[in-house]
Amino acid sequence: MGSENSGSKRELSERKKQILKAIIEAHIELGEPVGSKYLTSNKHIACSSATIRNEMAELENMGYLEQPHTSAGRVPSEAGYRLYVDSLIDSYRLTEREIEELRTSLRKKQAELDSILDTAIRLASSMTDYTALAAKPRKVRVTVSHFEIIRTDERSMILVLLIGGIVKTRAIRSRVPIGDEASGRLEAILNKKLTGLTAAEITMPLMMEMEREMGADEYLVEPVVKGICETISAFDGGELRFDGIDRLLSYPEVYGGERLRDMLTLFERKQDLLDVFSETEMQTGDDGSVKIYIGRENLVKTMDNSTLVYKPIKRGGILVGAIGVIGPTRMNYSRVIAMIDHLSSGVSNLIEEGDERSD
Amino acid sequence: MGSENSGSKRELSERKKQILKAIIEAHIELGEPVGSKYLTSNKHIACSSATIRNEMAELENMGYLEQPHTSAGRVPSEAGYRLYVDSLIDSYRLTEREIEELRTSLRKKQAELDSILDTAIRLASSMTDYTALAAKPRKVRVTVSHFEIIRTDERSMILVLLIGGIVKTRAIRSRVPIGDEASGRLEAILNKKLTGLTAAEITMPLMMEMEREMGADEYLVEPVVKGICETISAFDGGELRFDGIDRLLSYPEVYGGERLRDMLTLFERKQDLLDVFSETEMQTGDDGSVKIYIGRENLVKTMDNSTLVYKPIKRGGILVGAIGVIGPTRMNYSRVIAMIDHLSSGVSNLIEEGDERSD
DNA sequence: TTTAGCACTTGAAATGCCTGAGTGCTAACT
DNA sequence: AGTTAGCACTCAGGCATTTCAAGTGCTAAA
């Protein structure tokens, strides 16, 4: 209420920044409200506890700090964390050892995107000590670019669909024997008629046309097309995978009791979380940097008290997924950000360079 | 002590059985130790609380009951539960509604085993209110029965492997353009040389022989074979999936604090649980009935206090997986058993009949 | 403008008491 | 001999009370 900035958020004095930063970092480390006295031991702050108290009172007025109760220390508010990650944070330098670990672990899995992602979240979780997750975003337009039919025995075959670089398969069985010639013809027709179409664009007339072209073997068309539609539809739902759910329990203050249950339910239902990834800039143009959602900023109500840090994964400039961690608001931001940044880039490079080399 | 059965487990009197059964069922329902007085209200028991106390004391001597502390009621011991599920339990009859729900939900997913399993565990979890899990057991001998190569563009192709009825794919990219003729020849060679072999049986001399046969395009062999080996090796690890982990929290007495963490870790690591499925009779001959592991009977130490109920899933007589639920020892056995029995059979039928009909 | 000092607030932990449920045992009852 | 009623005893859980320590805001002095 003095003459200086009372509530109006103009600019923070250097000392206020120092104090806020110290409080946040102390709180991240200790998990408890931090008091004025404790801060005097901080080497970057050279004033008495009384002065600090005054500053803290003002910071609280400005909305950067909160007080759980009268006689407790201060705790950073969401606005405080936001300011912190936006302008106060020191960027964490991964150690040589950490970089090496990320590199070698990733290298080993020179396989499909799916297993790379599995490795990546396992890494992310174990190295940050938070719950890690990877998402493949919901596709806007899912189409098959190529069909292939593999005969297994005389009455069954496997349909192979190439959807946006990912292979999906589906077994088709028939009561009567299928001729090799018929399946070959079916394959050709599928490739001619259905490539580039979404499930919604596969119409009855189109199917009837295909049946006509198949002639005597028209009975194959309906089950196959039905299978294709189902597969396409099943594909467009994004995917979400986790690792290190057990680490939520390391933060009982946050994920205790009901909250934990909500969180687990959130992970199980998946949909809400997928929406987070889809609704944000992931779909549209996006600078590809690390994203941070703190507390209420999250679209999912369950996730106040939590922070989501993630970074998109790109292949050939287009978005194919994201990897991140989720944890309590008081997470170790600088370390997590550095990790996720590096890891996501690593995955991107890995799948990118697969296009260039074969090894 | 007395003249009668003191500790020696000969045969239980009818009344003791009634009392034990009543105690177990009351405990399952209420989750609390049950006392002598409470039981007098049970209509199947027609004697005073004092008599019940005497009987309970003897049952405790015999090891079927336990006392948390002196002035608390009795709680069933693991031996008590075991006796209960083996000989006291009334078999639960699913209601028409329940059967209908199982049937229709399963029908909808007329797809691959994987998605059927997903549906099944979701159902199992929601209908029993416990955590459900499905396993595909570790295969003893993993071999590829058929290879197929799909060209996507001139420098990349997709390798399709048919492993025990399941399709696995792998992208292969080359720095130099691959001729159609070359990939066709490679496919033929793979089918000739590698079908029926495990990863361990693919030797260097064999690969060199293939390179010789490929002539000028020998450079393709090494990356492809390497990819095949990796895919086969990755396949043999069984798979495990869950649903309803959040339901553990409904039983805080059991899964509170450290225990919950242990459980989550168990679910995340997967290996230990897979071992349970693999080490039991699943691999060898097996009558295909519902299996019940109570408390310490479980091979995994984390799982005392828990019961695992599962039933194998078979296709054409051979084992392809299992589905079950895991929950506190005091779970509602009769209902869960009936559910899992029905559900597993349903899945078995579903994939079985897929071999007969096409629709 | 900073600092020292002091009175005040308040949650957490410790303590002690009480209650009620449930037992084991003995003695009476059938 | 088996069953029941009665009684003394035990113990966990709830409740109120106290104590403690941390931390604050404010005032007055430097």
Oligomer: homodimer
Query: What is the number of helical segments of chain A per DSSP (H or I, 4+ residues)?
Result: 12
Query: Main beta sheet of chain A: strand number and arrangement?
Result: 5 strands, antiparallel
Structural class of chain A: alpha+beta
Shape annotation of chain A? elongated
| Through-space gap between termini of chain A | 68 Å
Q: Biggest interface, and residues per chain?
A: A-B, 43 and 44 residues
Helix content of chain A: 40-55%
- In angstroms, what is the radius of gyration of chain A? 27 Å
Along the chain, the helix and strand elements of chain A come as: HHHEEHHHEEEEHHHEHHEEEH
Tally of DSSP β-strands of chain A: 10
The amount of beta strand of chain A, in percent, is: 15-25%
Mean pLDDT across every amino acid position of chain A: 86
Task: Identify low-pLDDT runs of chain A.
Answer: 1-9, 355-359
**Major sheet of chain A: order of its strands?**
7-3-10-9-8
Describe, in plain words, how this protein is organized in 3D.
- Chain A is elongated, with a radius of gyration of 27 Å.
- Chain A is α+β, with helices and mostly antiparallel strands.
- The first copy, chain A, has twelve helices and ten strands.
- Mean pLDDT of chain A is about 85; it is low at about 1-10 and about 355-359.
- In chain A, the strands form three sheets. In chain A, strands 7-3-10-9-8 form a five-stranded antiparallel beta sheet, sandwiched between helices. Chain A has a three-stranded antiparallel beta sheet with strand order 4-5-6, with helices on one face. In chain A, strands 1-2 form a two-stranded antiparallel ribbon.
- In chain A, a hairpin with an 8-residue loop joins strand 1 (about 65) and strand 2.
- In chain A, about 45% of the residues lie in helices and about 20% in strands.
- The interface of A and B includes residues 111 and 234 of A.
- Chain A binds a DNA duplex (30 and 30 nucleotides) through helix 3.
